[in-house]
């Protein structure tokens, strides 16, 4: 428990974490507001709409905040400290305090999970508010089961970013790859046009937990199970690599 509290404290002390909170809380709402405006114009023009997807698209594309969270949680450990602090890395100090590397990773992943849950709930509140404000009586009814799926998607995305950063020891690569892949046209989406195997990639399967469209390939439960499996395997591999790694190099 002390390790978990220490990781929470370290995360909240990072300057970049507030950018993650800001993006995570409001990016989905901005996307939802733009989409709601477009759908309202279609309603007025008498054109067919996709109201059932409004809001959920924002929650699907607005995960950049938790991606930053997952990356920062690990990459901050490898930043070089000031000369007054000895010029080493935070990771050395962290592992001195928490002798078990597995417990250290578990505590850090737990802190990322808790913050991701809180951030996703805030994102849902801002997204639902923006959608209802713009669409008014035309606003779709947000289903509890789909919102729970969105929360799970955010948690799993943060943990994927976390695991990849553990493997790379560098935040630039996972941040760039995951941020690009969470944009409007994802790599998974493009691959899905070529092979059905792409539907088993974590992000593509994960969105089926709350995005019910004609393109959905999995049931919400199956999609969540696939994404969870990716997270579990990645965490196990990351834990093994981290256990064997010389953290000073």
UniProtKB/TrEMBL annotation:
Domain of life: Bacteria
Keyword Cell inner membrane among record annotations: no
Keyword Flavoprotein: no
Keyword tags: Membrane, Transmembrane, Transmembrane helix
Transmembrane annotation, as ranges: 12-34, 54-74, 111-135, 147-168, 175-201, 221-242
Name of this protein: ABC transporter permease
Organism: Lysinibacillus pakistanensis
Lineage, opening ranks: Bacteria, Bacillati, Bacillota, Bacilli, Bacillales
């Amino acid at each position: 428990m002390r390790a978990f509290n220490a990781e929470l404290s370290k995360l909240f002390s990072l300057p970049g974490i507030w950018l993650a909170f800001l993006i995570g809380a409001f990016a989905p709402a901005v996307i939802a507001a733009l989409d709601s405006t477009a759908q309202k114009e279609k309603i007025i023009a008498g054109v067919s709409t996709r109201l059932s997807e409004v809001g959920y698209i924002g929650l699907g594309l607005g995960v950049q905040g938790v991606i930053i969270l997952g990356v920062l949680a690990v990459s901050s450990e490898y930043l070089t400290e000031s000369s007054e602090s000895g010029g080493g890395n935070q990771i050395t100090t962290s592992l001195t305090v928490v002798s078990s590397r597995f417990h250290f990773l578990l505590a850090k992943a737990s802190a990322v999970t808790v913050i991701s849950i809180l951030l996703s709930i805030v994102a849902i509140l801002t997204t639902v508010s923006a959608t209802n404000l713009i669409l008014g009586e035309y606003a779709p009814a947000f289903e509890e089961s789909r919102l729970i799926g969105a929360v799970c998607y955010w948690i799993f995305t943060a943990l994927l970013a976390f695991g990849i950063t553990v493997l790379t020891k560098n935040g630039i690569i996972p941040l760039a790859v995951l941020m690009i892949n969470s944009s409007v046209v994802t790599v998974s989406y493009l691959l899905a046009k070529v092979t059905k195997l792409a539907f088993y990639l974590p992000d593509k399967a994960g969105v089926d937990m709350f995005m019910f469209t004609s393109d959905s390939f999995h049931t919400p439960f199956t999609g969540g199970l696939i994404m969870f499996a990716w997270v579990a395997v990645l965490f196990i591999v990351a834990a093994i690599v981290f256990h064997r790694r010389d953290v000073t190099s």
